Amino acid sequence: MNLPKISTGTAQSAERVHMPQTLPMIAGNWKMNGLKASLEVATAIAAASAEARADVVIFPPFTLIGQMAEALKGSHVSIGGQDCHTETHGAYTGDISAAMLADMGASHVLLGHSERRLVHGEACALVARKVQAALKAGLEPVICIGETLEQRLSGLTTDVLLNQLRDSLPDDLETASFHIAYEPVWAIGTGHSASDEQIIEAVAVIRKFLSHRFAGAPHPHILYGGSVNAENAGHLLGLEGIGGALVGGASLKAESFLKIIEAAG
Ligand code: PEP
Known about the structure:
Layout: E1 25-29, H1 39-48, E2 55-59, H2 62-71, E3 78-81, H3 98-104, E4 108-111, H4 114-119, H5 124-136, E5 140-145, H6 149-153, H7 157-168, E6 179-182, H8 196-213, E7 222-225, H9 233-237, E8 244-247, H10 254-264
Parallel strand pairs: 1-2, 1-8, 2-3, 3-4, 4-5, 5-6, 6-7, 7-8
The chain binds phosphoenolpyruvate.
């Protein structure tokens, strides 16, 4: 397996990056949480963040996408699915296609989240095919990558990130019509975010890979995810190369998610 030669860089040596002139993306992953009553949380978020200097995306469970799209019609908040199938339709019991997400009003989709990779055994090649399906349906994929604690402790973080990037991004991916979320698995839902240096190093690896692969193209957002909350968001969003945050637990309550959106501005 021939990985591109990319040094990890450090907080000090990380190549100066040119951020695109876009707003930071603040994405809320509700995971398997939320009943109809939770639509109020989404409408409260949309109402109170109307002036926000951020692209706000909520990823509710599939069951709420249609109603949330209806409730947030005309607002600045976008909606995404948490996964999609590789095919548009067919005999795939329990699955949802990218076309179905778009039909319900979604504009984004999370792909390759570690809970899909680890709990559902999703390999990078499958994620790449889902990315293709998402783009075909007109959705913006947010492709999640990140190392486990065991991989980090074994010194494999850079290799894991490069492997995941190389194999989860389809060969025919041409433009920066996607986003990357760096989510160290050990920081998700633990209350312990990665350190500044760990995040900056990982983002430098990702940016160098993207620069090699998409020379000259504008960089996609690179989000950090893993125990982002109302207190640490301002600091994490200010780190070199970070273009937004993917937020799990703290996106379930309007109060904490709004503070994170505010921190982005
Ligand atoms: C996530 O699941 O994508 C996530 C970042 O969760 P949390 O913010 O709860 O760590």
